[in-house]
Design brief:
By secondary structure, the protein is an alpha/beta fold. Helices cover 45% and strands 14% of the residues. A four-stranded mixed beta sheet has the order 3-13-6-16. The chain has a four-stranded mixed beta sheet with strand order 8-10-7-11. Strands 9-17-12 form a three-stranded parallel beta sheet.
Length: 527
Amino acid sequence: MTRKATKGSLKKLMSLALTAVMGVSLLAGCSSAEDKAEGGASGDGKRVTLKVELFDRGKTPSQYTISNNFISQMIQKNFGDPNNIDVKFVPVQRSEEVTKLNVLMASASDVPDIVFVYDSSVFYRYAQQGGLTDVGELIDQHGPNLKKFLGEDTLKFGQVEGQQFAIPGKRAITARYSSFIRQDWLDKLGLPVPQTTDELYNTLKAFKEKDPGNMGSQNIPMGFALAPAAYEPLIYSFIKPIAGDKTYAQRYELPLHEGFKESMQFLNKLYNEGLISKDFSLDKDKTQQGKDVANGNIGFFSEDVDSIFWPEASYDLLKKNKPDSKLIPVDAYTNSNVDGKHIKSRYGSNGMYIMIPKSSERAVEAIKYLDWMASDNNLTAIYNGVEGENYELVDGIPVVKEDATQEAKDRLFNAGDTAIISNGKNLGDQAMNEKAWIMGFPPANQEVLKKALEVANTDTIGPIVFSKPIQSEMKYSTALTDKLDVIIVKTAMAKPEEFEAVYEKEIADYMSLGGAELKKELEAAEQ
């Protein structure tokens, strides 16, 4: 067993221990959904307290506290006071998100009325143990604006067997990955921008043989790393979706897809012909790939759609280090399983899972609070601050003032963590969201980012939303995640004549580690 697998096993044991404690606590002190839908304490004229979880990232400006600041005061004034509610924020260290939440949930009396988590397996566990309020009726009665803002597709992510146990945050941008190529290298060789996987392969061979960047031993035709942004675009261009434009949600489930073997065979070919980064297996955080892009060593690579465009990131550094370089987005991978489309993954429309513990007596107030956040311009005010001081409206889009005072900037230190119903700035539709997002980057990078976003949004496939938890995901996710890395490295580095044997051995190991059980459960859940 690997060291990571051992750590994963220990984490599972700890989780089981917590579960044993929580199994009783989560079911205690419960009032029915019908009781909660009747009204809530604030309806009888008494002032009540609504406790809301808030991430603490340890970056609070000195004039504020994490629970008492510009945004919390605005919320109290505009939502709390008119509704006779004291809104109390309960800080949780971001780095201890799940551990602290487990403790709070087990206590019942100390747990906030609104909690959240990014990990779907944690949400499913709480739901299965009976620790969460079914908020379906409450949303119908007290959350019309919230329901309209999220939409049915996003709400489905918080449902378990027909019951609405979580309110998913809505993701503003679902685009995920883009690929990039050195246009100046193509121009030197008189080559067109590759439009298919075969054309890309031939282009990479030309980059290696003719070295248009005069990089010598530093020449890397295709940058690669042992990171999802590097390997997922390649793999997705080979696999067949499960149904329509849907596929399994977790990356450790990739080996279960038809076409995965062919993707590994192509990667093996690239590696053995010296077309990709030789030491990619050591670069799990893309640090080396980023340096190679910035230094002008790489001809083609795939990356998160936005990561190279932030100030002083690899795109800016490349322009500084190689003033004559020209990097452009390219959609080169084609999928023979799907009519030659440029298949790539997209994020689901959900962000975090917002939950109301079953023990809470403030479920109505909680839904009213989230509904208020989704109403009028309240979300804009939380995210963007004060018009004229923090931002100006340009074509209906809040654009950050470059000359905003430090005092104005400090107001928004926890804006994203407070606006929990929105993962990113949601302005009404995807086009507006993307336009606003692009305008947050350096002006010199915006046009190229816009084209990268077009690539990232082309021929995308999203995650299947199952009506109930996949138990084997929770049991085997750690081991199978580690195993996917092993499969990629070992099959890529195998000698071509040994590929078949290496692949079959590693896949057999994967299936024995839980892959077989996972496959069986996923296929049954699809029915």
